[in-house]
Structure formats: structure tokens, C-alpha cells
Amino acid sequence: MSFFKVEGVSLHFGGVRAVDNVSFNVDKGEIFTIIGPNGAGKTSIFNLISRIYRPTGGRLMFEDQDITNVAPHKIAKMGIARTFQNIELFENASLLSNLLIGRHCHSTTQAWQEALFLPSVKAAERAHREKCEEVIEFLDLAVYRDTYIASLPYGIRKVTEIARALCSEPKIILLDEPSSGLNVEETDDMAFWIRDIRSQLGITVIMVEHDMALVSRVSDRVLALNYGKVLAMGTPAEVQQHPDVVAAYIGA
Ligand SMILES: Nc1ncnc2c1ncn2[C@@H]1O[C@H](COP(=O)(O)OP(=O)(O)OP(=O)(O)O)[C@@H](O)[C@H]1O
Description:
Layout: E1 4-13, E2 16-26, E3 31-35, H1 42-49, E4 57-62, E5 65-66, H2 72-78, E6 80-82, H3 95-102, H4 111-116, H5 119-138, H6 154-167, E7 172-176, H7 184-199, E8 204-208, H8 212-218, E9 221-226, E10 229-234, H9 236-241, H10 243-251
Parallel strand pairs: 3-8, 3-9, 6-7, 7-8
Antiparallel strand pairs: 1-2, 1-4, 4-5, 9-10
Helix pairs in contact: 3-6, 5-6
Bound molecules: adenosine-5'-triphosphate.
């Protein structure tokens, strides 16, 4: 069984080929990173996987199921969660409230049951809170649990976004530039979190990242894109030394 597969996927915006016939596989438990100069098509691939965009051609397979036409909310329910390049949290809510929102794809109770506050609703609520507390503990966020997002330092917000994605208990987490805006020490911590997400939680990581030191430290394999096309794929060292990749970055 192949875990996650992108097969000949394209995305065109008018005349712009943001993604042009791209194929790759990601194995279960892998840390797979997509790199490329600005405008290479990295975010477009994330938006295709999370179904924000519908591909112009090709298909996406997850655990041998064709997910090309699955609705975005169902993608989350199937076990694919993501973070965004520009943090997307509710600023005027506590860290814990933001995580509880991240659990909503697991909600099985109906509005009428919630209105009556039935025992099943109380049990579900307790389970949601327990999961959030587990994630808070895992990412060392307990001290910030009740703090409003607006009052949190940027680095903690980045970790909170990851926490929110983890609360949905994903099989794959898509991290869009996890180190952007972080200082050296915070980037160092981020490398540990990324590796722990894989090693301790068994979650597969697909990441878009510009910081090549971080890419080399954590990635099993790297895919390099330019102008929507695959330039190279392999270990971080193989891809970094690939002449087409070197040329793309020098020309960028
Ligand atoms: N909604 C859109 N409408 C039109 N063109 C778009 C749209 N989204 C992306 N593009 C174009 O598609 C190409 C790929 O963009 P994308 O954002 O995927 O690149 P990227 O590799 O993520 O870049 P960056 O590193 O700057 O975030 C670019 O030429 C971009 O201008």
C-alpha cells in the first residue's frame, strides 16, 4: 500500500503553471520537505493537498484512496492537518480555546444534543479537553494554556499553530514554513518538535521550508521545485548539490 501519492498533478492560473505535472510519494513516518525559490509552487502544492485548490490535472492518493475530489473538511477528518505560513489563530481567544477549535473535526455530537447538554456531550467535551491537554504537555505549552494568542510571543504562536493541527490527531501534518520569523534558538527548538512529532507521535510530516540548515537536519527526503516543475528529489545532500537546484537558487 502506498501511503501518500501525488500523481502528475498540475495547477494552472490562466497562463501561469503554478504546478506542472508534479509526482512524488511520501512514506508513512517520513519527514518530506519541499523546497524551491519564491514562486516555485510550494504553497500551491500544500493548497492542492488540503483541497483549497482543485488540480487542473493529475490525482492525489492517500492510503490508496483517491482524494482528488474530497471536500476540505473531509480531508481533515481523514487525517491530514496543516499549519499556515501566516499564522491563522484566533487572537482574542486563549491558547486552550484555539486548540479546542482544532478538535472540531472530531465532533460527533449534534447541535440539539449540545443544547440539552446530554451526558454524551459532556463525555465528548471531556475527551476533547483531554486530547488538548495532552498536546499542550507534549509541546511544553502548559504555562501559556490560558493566555490570549494576542499576548503570546511570535515563536510560541508558531508552536501553538502546530499544537492546533496535532489536536485533530492527524496521520499527516503539513507544515508551511515552520521556521519563518523564528530566531536561531527558536528554530533549533522547532527542529526538535518536528522530529518528536514523527518519532513520538508517529505522524508523517510534509513541510515547505526555506531554511536549508533546518531542512538538512530533519528531512529524510527533499523535493526541489522551480517554476512548478520537479528539479530534483533525494536526500537533503543529494538535492542541495544537484546542479539544477544550484542553478535555480543562483538565478533566483
Ligand atoms: N491564486 C493565485 N492566482 C494566480 N496566480 C497564483 C495564485 N497562487 C499562486 N499563484 C502563482 O503561482 C506560482 C506559484 O506560487 P506559490 O505561492 O505556490 O509559490 P511558492 O513556492 O509557495 O512561493 P513562496 O516561497 O514565495 O511562498 C507563482 O507564480 C504565483 O504568482
